[in-house]
Amino acid sequence: xxxxxxxxxxxxxxxxxxxxxxxxxxxxxxxxxxxxxxxxxxxxxxxxxxxxxxxxxxxxxxxxxxxxxxxxxxxxxxxxxxxxxxxxxxxxxxxxxxxxxxxxxxxxxxxxxxxxxxxxxxx
Length: 123
Fold this sequence. Notes:
Elements: H1 17-27, H2 37-70, H3 76-83, H4 86-108, H5 113-121
């Protein structure tokens, strides 16, 4: 019996990284290394903080909607109208910028303690 030939080598197509690089640059995450334990810890911190905020905010919105409906102060139609108002759109624009900066702060301004320690040791 002839020796079995190795299975044909199938290369996995690599994704076009040019689009990914552009989005990473745009998001301010240039240099993020998924294998770096500090980057992973920061990312997990961001995810957990956001999950906690989502839970708290959903409860707060639900509580306010129940209170407003029970007092017949606002109904769903009034809330829908407010959602498309100029004031709401202006707030969304400001909040988007502030929220994006706060969300990326662990990556754009990481803990500088290691740098301080290195400077102290060099003296």
